[in-house]
Design brief:
globular; Tick-borne Encephalitis virus Glycoprotein, domain 1; single chain; alpha+beta; six-stranded antiparallel β-sheet; 10 strands; 671 residues
Length: 671
């Protein structure tokens, strides 16, 4: 099986390399036969790559230790679903999955209906195939997932206990899917620059890819935070780890790209910015890979020192040089088409928000590289703490919330109308009332009051903007007009709902960061323990033996002052194969906050050492993130379009309709 896998991997590499060369040459020469041969080669390469995925997946589930990868990441004691998840845990396996997902993106890009009318499709597929060839070259020459074991062991090393968590079954594939999706907007930008097609067509084609990549990457980051919250046992969900920063940075620049693309389509401004962001966001996905695979720092999420990361650094350099050269050659054709419509125009708010996003991305970038750069430049490692990030996050975060809140009551190219100004005054009045109520309530941090005020402004502006849109549809009945407004303006209102999701997420971050409380204690069985207004009773300690581990858990009865009692079972797991303990926390979640219990190891059967953490408003964080991702997919859903009976009776707009019009004209001509 290892030989079959090696042959399939080599076939995929050769076929993808030919497909990239042939597609780009065919687009340049307008050679149909060459283009068709590129498609055949790419399809063959994808089939071969799918075969490699199947071989490695089967070997992992079947525990075939003749594969070095299987011996390193699986074991006889590992359940089959965690054995399969080992496919994307190791360095070679994760790159294989990434390459396969890029191949799937090529397939969609080549044959999806919304891409067929694009003049950029051929070159775009060529650039995607070129990147796929790069990933396969890394696999063939640097990290072979099909490598055979020198001597097949009877038992493998197994999967790290920290990775045996449900979130790890889907978190890595989701992140790599997002990275693969970001390939296409970059390829479209390069194709548009190379061909001089600098109109908004490339943005129309890139929009669904960018929006889907943004939503998928956001969901992946959220799952990673949930894994850290539940599995690491420290009570938090984000530690500003360099690898965490690596995935956050392209999400921030991707957010800016989506909004800059809107400003470019609607007003013809930020044209250079959209090209830069499309290329930079994809480059930063590779930067995240460089962080995890270069070995320049030690992290729970990073692999050991390897030359593979530096191959991605070379790719980033080539991408920057190539993209920069193309933009320099097209600089005269990238000037804005219209002036900005004033400080209160929507495109101006997008510029302000983009600057804030770039600042946050820059801070995360500096934080990720601070340790290796300081070690290189001054000979000692400088570790950046939470204060560095907070000093930038707090003011820029509030500025982002403010621009997000104002968006529903602004217009493209113009200041708000008289009705919008009136609604804005009402929205600011709501924000002031919320701030006063939060201040009178007492005990809140000024930042919490600021976030609550921005949340009130955002909610009032959203419903105010929706009400104005509904009123334009009079004299229809209100509910019918509201339904029509939401149906026709689904994309716009879904985007505003995503803004509300981000605001809810900010509420959760502020509450859990500023009002988290922690307490450690030793509890004796049967004796109540009082912490603040909560009574905690240790009911008992139990041991459970399983095939792969020993489980020690504590049963706790927790009785809050003004709520119903609940039971928690924090635990410690002893993993036989790895011979190490892991902590399994217990969490009781409500909309007001989480009660979080951690059991510490001890040999006494009559008492237990525990740590309790109260994290306020955590459901707002998870719920806001889910709402933003769901709203993005609602906005992504294609519009239902009614095609006119004839090209002359109704003007057709957009690249898809121009394609239909040309086809109709041809059918009419040839009768």
């Amino acid at each position: 099986m290892t030989t079959l896998g090696e042959l399939l991997l080599l076939c995929a590499f050769v076929a993808s390399g030919y497909a990239a060369f042939a597609a780009l040459a065919a687009d340049r020469l307008r050679h149909g036969t060459l283009a068709r041969s590129a498609d055949v080669a790419a399809m063959g390469g994808l089939c071969a790559l799918t075969g490699v995925m199947f071989v490695l997946g089967w070997a992992l589930v079947a525990k075939d230790f003749r594969f070095a990868y299987v011996a390193q990441y699986s074991s006889q004691l590992l359940p089959w679903h965690y054995s399969l998840s080992a496919l994307w845990v190791g360095q070679a396996g994760s790159l294989l999955l990434w390459a396969w997902l890029v191949g799937i993106c090529w397939l969609v890009c080549r044959f999806a209906a919304f891409m067929r009318a694009s003049e950029l499709r051929g070159a775009t597929c060529g650039y995607v195939a070129a990147y796929l060839t790069f990933l396969l070259a890394v696999l063939v020459f640097g990290a072979d997932p099909m490598a055979a074991s020198a001597e097949a062991p009877r038992e493998g090393a197994g999967l790290s206990p920290l990775l045996q968590h449900p979130a790890m079954l889907i978190h890595p594939p989701i992140v790599f899917l997002a990275y693969a999706l970001w390939t296409v907007p970059c390829a479209l930008a390069l194709a548009a620059l190379a061909q001089g097609r600098l109109q908004e067509e490339w943005l129309e084609q890139a929009r669904p890819w960018a929006l889907c990549a943004w939503a998928v990457l956001g969901g992946g980051i959220l799952l990673g935070a949930d894994w850290a919250y539940e599995e690491l046992g420290w009570g938090g969900y984000w530690g500003w780890d360099p690898v965490e920063n690596g995935s956050l940075i392209p999400w921030l620049t991707g957010t800016s790209l989506i909004h800059a693309g809107m400003a470019c389509r609607h007003r013809g401004v930020m044209r250079k910015t959209t090209f830069v962001l499309a290329i930079a966001t994809f480059g930063l996905c590779n930067f995240a890979t460089f962080l995890t695979r270069s070995g320049i720092f030690s992290s729970l999420h990073a692999f050991s020192r390897s030359p593979l990361g530096w191959m991605f650094l070379v790719l980033m350099f080539a991408l920057a040089v190539g993209g920069g050269t193309l933009m320099f050659l097209q600089r005269q054709n990238l000037a804005p088409r219209r002036p900005f419509g004033g400080i209160w125009a929507r495109e101006s708010l997008i510029v302000i928000a983009s600057l804030a996003l770039w600042l946050l991305a820059g801070v995360a970038f500096i934080g990720a590289l601070a340790v290796p750069l300081s070690d290189l430049l001054i000979g000692r490692k400088v570790v950046i703490g939470q204060a560095f990030y907070n000093n930038a996050l707090i003011p820029t975060g509030l500025l982002l919330l403010l621009t997000t809140a104002l968006a529903p009551l602004t217009r493209w190219g113009k200041p708000p109308s008289a009705r919008q100004w009136r609604m804005l005054r009402y929205a600011f009045a709501v924000a002031v009332v919320v701030a006063v109520v939060a201040g009178v309530r007492g005990g809140l941090h000024p930042l919490e009051i600021g976030v609550a005020s921005c949340a009130g402004l955002a909610a009032a502006a959203f419903f105010g903007g929706l009400l104005l849109d509904v009123r334009r549809r009079t004299p229809s009945p209100f509910w019918q007009a509201a339904w029509q407004t939401l149906r026709v303006g689904r994309r716009q209102h879904a985007a505003f709902v995503a803004h509300l999701g981000i605001v809810c997420l900010a509420i959760g971050i502020a509450g859990s960061s500023l009002r988290s409380r922690q307490h450690s204690a030793t509890l004796h069985i049967g004796q109540p323990y009082q912490w603040e207004e909560t009574t905690i009773r240790l009911i008992g300690l139990q041991q459970h033996r399983r095939a792969d581990k020993l489980v020690v858990d504590a049963e706790l009865l927790v009785t809050p002052a003004n709520a119903s009692p609940f039971t928690l079972r924090p635990a410690q797991h002893w993993h036989r194969l790895q011979r190490e303990w892991t902590t399994e926390v217990a969490i009781h979640s409500t909309w007001s906050g989480d009660f979080y219990a951690i059991l510490h190891g001890n040999d006494d059967t009559e008492q237990a050492s525990l740590t309790f953490v109260v994290n306020p408003l955590m459901r707002w964080l998870w719920g806001g993130g889910i709402l933003a991702v769901a709203a993005a997919f609602v906005a992504l859903w294609p519009q239902r379009r009614r095609v006119a009976q004839s090209a002359s009776s109704s003007p057709l707009r957009g690249p898809h309709f121009r394609f239909l019009a040309r086809r109709r004209q041809t059918e009419t001509t040839h009768g």
